[in-house]
Amino acid sequence: MLKLCCPSSCTLYSSHSTFDLGALHLGIHRWQRRCNYSDSAESIKSTTTTKPKVHRPRCVISTLDPSRLQDNDFLDLGNGVSRTRLGTSTPTVLHRSASSSPPERRRSNILIDYHGRAGLDHPFPTHTRGFLYYHRDPELPPISGAVRFRLTAAAHASSFSAGMDLMLPDGRTPWAIWLVTVANAAKYVGLKQILLFDGLVAPELLEYCRHLGARSEASNGLTSMYRHMLFRLDQPFILDLSSTPRFSAVGPQGIEHAVIACTRVNTMGHGMKPFFPFSGQCMVRFERSLSPEHAGKRVAVIRVLEILTPIVSTNPTYTPGHKGGLFRIPTVGSLLVKGDRPIAINADGDSHLSRCVRLLM
After folding, report:
1. Where is mean pLDDT largest: 14-18, 41-45, 202-206, 261-265?
2. Which residue from 63, 90, 154, 315 has the least number of CB within 10 angstroms?
3. ∠ Cα 70 172 134 (to 5°)
4. What ranges does the record give for the region Disordered, renumbered to this chain (predicted)?
């Protein structure tokens, strides 16, 4: 008697029994047809249903240099999303210098968001159409550089100079990705690649930024920290009188953080919150004290440059417990004064505020 064994191979077993040879051939033929059909079906299924998923970026950018922008670098992010993925077509720097042949192009993803913290995301404004570019204030040190977004009226690189920068929800702070953040976050590797290829940033500066960010206590919030970062003593910043303003200072030794507590009154009693006698915002700056009593010392004062929103009393019935606790309402050009004397910061002290001022000096 014959037996047929399937599927991986076909082996014939014979015995001394008699059998119908024609029936055997017909059975083998039918079995081969079934195997061939099955193989074909599996082949078709594998080519139609198991294609690898390719996550392609929505847009591809080629440069961050305003002088090299092309029309195809134009981005439209005003479609209601809070973050988007971009790609780059920038050649690798090492290949470029190692050979005279055309550099090999590769794409590196970039993941950017508008404004998100602690799970609270804000979508890009509907007018977010324009170009990513690298910005550096010539009056600030190179480490202050950041990637910004220039809003333009048309999808043409020629409209860049007439545009304006995208702002954060406060309407006063430009949207930006700090250079130290670019050097430390994997999602910005494409930006780092473009900055190097364009020659906008030296490799040594990026390496310094990487070490600086790694040493920072706020390595996961470098972009947020940058919004309140000072790089020089007389750099203007916003002072909100209805809060305890926080700021950071960067110098060769690292990054320091501090608060300006002169806007609040510490109330007595367990569980009592600080009281803010005034509300409003003004633009201020630190500057060296020219007072004779501070001659030969490193002492800074705070100068009022501009009143941004009206400064009003939050509680007209409030009177300080002692004369030295009275914070005077600032005016343009004046110094911040508490009691009878301007607020002075000794840069040689041990407080966080002193260390910040010391870095800036």
Report:
1. 202-206
2. 315
3. 30
4. 86-106
